Amino acid sequence: MNARDCHTGPVSPGLYQIDDKTLVSIRLARSAQDPSRFRAVALAVLRDNHRVPLSSTLTAGYGADREGALQACLERVREGLERGRFPQLHRSRRPEATL
Questions:
Q1: Under 8 Å between Cβ of 23 and 2
Q2: Which of 22, 52, 55, 85 counts the most CB atoms within 10 A of its CB?
Q3: Torsion sign (Cα): 23, 21, 91, 98
Q4: For 38-74, what is each residue's pLDDT tens digit?
Q5: How confident is the model at residue 87 (pLDDT cuts 50, 70, 90)?
């Protein structure tokens, strides 16, 4: 799916490929208030078969049209992946049992 394949509903999730190893899940929504503005938020990134956790505040893109909001969101995701600024979730393992 690419940026031109957006659905016409008020909220449309989609998968977008940034490059040959990166896939982004994005939710695109339209505000109910006038003037109608669009908001695109990246929910998750799959890179080299590994999920990269995202912060919705860092990946939100806004625009007057769907394409503008989507491109702003994808640009923020690209920048974040290049800088490695997305917080990594480290699952803590249970400590070893000691007697």
A1: no
A2: 52
A3: positive
A4: 999 998 888 888 888 788 788 889 988 889 999 999 9
A5: low
